[in-house]
Amino acid sequence: MDRFLQGVADFSGWLWGVPLISLLLISGLYMTFKLGFFQFRYFGYIIGQTFGSVFKKPKGVGTVTPLQALTSALSSTIGAANIVGVPAAIMFGGPGAVFWMWVIALIGMALKFSESVLAVEYREKNEKGEFVGGPMYYMTKGLGMKWLGVWFSFALMIELIPSIMVQGNSVASTVEASFDVPPLWTGIAAAVLVSIVVFGGIKRIGKVTEILVPFMAFFYVGGALIILFMNIDAVPEFFSLIFSNAFSPAPVMGGFAGAAIVEIIRWGFARGLYSNESGLGTAPIAHAAATTDHPVRQGFWAVVGVMVDTLIVCTATAFVVLSSGVWTEEGAIDNSSALTTLAFESYFGTFGGILVTLALIFFVFSTILVVIFYGAKQAEFLFGLKASYGIQVVYVVAVVLGSIGAAEVIWGFLDIMLAAILIPNVIAILLLSNKVKELKTEFFTSQQYYKKDKKEQSQ
């Protein structure tokens, strides 16, 4: 059994190495070229249409506000990867891995934009009058490949069971280590809180994440900003360290064993993609419910989601870890998951550890909320609305079972199951790339949208 599990781990490590990173990189570059580098050309306009319009009434129709759709999507992506994954990338790939994390985020914006645009374009209303959409709908309606939609939907619905168990275990382990609370109690408490929110549907989830996500992001990033101002002189050195190691083999230093250029790029790309989930097909399920007058306008919110997740939150973690020097200490590579906590503690003492612990609990809890919603939408697509309530019960039970470490054996299959979702979604995006380009061109050339917005701005 041990040999089999090791074989699964080895295959998973290979699959999420060159094969899938190449697929995402090439498809991200292809969509970036095809869409005319829009994420760079219209960056200021995109910010204005998203964060700049938060207090304006959204245009068009939908179930939740664009901000609620974004915070729901961010709830899934801002998680343990931002706190634990970044120091792992630094320890195994060196500081230069952070640069490649930024690169894949900028390229990944085109994929995230494309899948969200398609989700809105091919969405429909369910029995409750709520807008639903995502890869399973654009595969079915856009490509006429219902079998591919069924594959994606079923694979995601099943994959979320071990995924939720891992999240439940993560939050229970964190609470036990920090506050000495038995894992089972944490699991039950988390399950009750999750049930109260998720059974209220996307509207309740949106209202909760709209408050929770900005709070937890400001709480965590705010702590990093205080450290930044305490060490403002370290900023040039921070960027110098990242850029100098991005294109050359990283040297051996203290706890860091050094890394070849290929490893630097691989770790940066892998952690970046794991963090922002560009091309995975999950975030579009949330964006499909947004109130909007054009699919492209909601696609802009998906773009800023990548910016918040990777360019802001992951960079905040990287600055704290690199500026503190904890990554150079002996034995650091064997304890990479704790480096963020140690880094914050080096600045704030015991409070720093509590800050990271609370951030991790909030991040993981919000992730559980939204991925249960994602899973429910798959059951609804496959079997109807009633089935969505049944699978939600299964997911809530999975939170409790995961908290006590049940079924750890199947956790090793998680990455392989993720690949079974990602591959059909990227194929669908590429096959529908002309539709994405058509919608993007329509938005930027029509008098109803971009030109009207620019005219209003100039008045």
TrEMBL record:
Native source species: Planococcus salinus
Lipid bilayer topology: Multi-pass membrane protein
Matching Pfam families: Na_Ala_symp
Cellular component, GO, one term: plasma membrane
InterPro entries the UniProt entry points to: Na/Ala_symport
GO molecular function, one term: amino acid:sodium symporter activity
Keywords, comma-separated and alphabetical: Cell membrane, Membrane, Symport, Transmembrane, Transmembrane helix, Transport
Stretches that traverse the bilayer: 14-33, 69-93, 99-122, 143-164, 184-202, 211-232, 238-262, 300-327, 347-375, 387-404, 410-432
PANTHER family: AGSS FAMILY TRANSPORTER, SODIUM-ALANINE, TRANSCRIPTIONAL REGULATOR, LRP FAMILY
Subcellular localization(s) per the UniProt record: Cell membrane
Protein name: Sodium:alanine symporter family protein
Similarity section: Belongs to the alanine or glycine:cation symporter (AGCS) (TC 2.A.25) family.
